[in-house]
Fold DUF190 domain-containing protein.
Amino acid sequence: MLKKGLAKKLSIYVDESDRYGEKPVYEVLVDIFYKKKIAGVSVFRGVAGYGRDGVYHTTKMLALSGKMPVKIEVVDSEEMIDRVLPDVYQVVEKGLIEVSDTNVIKCGVEEEKKEEGERMKLQGKAKMLRVIVREDHKWEGETLYEAIVKRFIMMDIAGATVYKAVAGYGPRRRFRKMKFLSRGGELPVLITVIDTEEKIKEILPVLDDMVQEGIVVLSDVDVIKYTTIGAESELM
């Protein structure tokens, strides 16, 4: 089963009219990948392009060309890709076969749920990370604290909680207080994360880039109990 991390991407480019025996080449390849238990395969049909003949082709309504390119893409471990290459080489008589390194960031809902369940066993020595920024700070057009939390999710951090301040002051010593029904914007926001030292070290360079003005504090903690009831229980 394909997992997060380093992998190989196999890309094959053929014409949709190319055949191997009585079947289109791309269908034969999909059958091979299925029988060899490749994690998954996608077939994309081009809408425009040209090949070695230099002739430009495009699809138009009611006039579909059989010369349009088809891309077959597979992502799996290096071992699995090596297993299918001899068959691919035999089937693809003309076209392009490419293998490149890739990094799987996210793959499969069921596998993620399993990994999430395993990570909920956090207990004992850990690190607490606190990030304090202003509520109205932005990162690439998005609210900064929301962008930080999304990045934590992508990096598989155990959990994060965001607290909005009701009053406070910063380096400029200007006291600010949230007024009733006021949206504020200049008050601080606290993002708290607890995870292993290894995982916290992974996100420090990310915060160094994203937090241009604010405070990042790291401290040792002892996790006595950390459990979740389900998807609805997200607070730390």
Remarks:
- DSSP finds five helices and 16 strands in the chain.
- Confidence is low (pLDDT under 50) at residues 109-114, 231-236.
- The CA atoms of residues 140 and 218 lie 25 Å apart.
- The first strand starts at residue 5 and ends at 15.
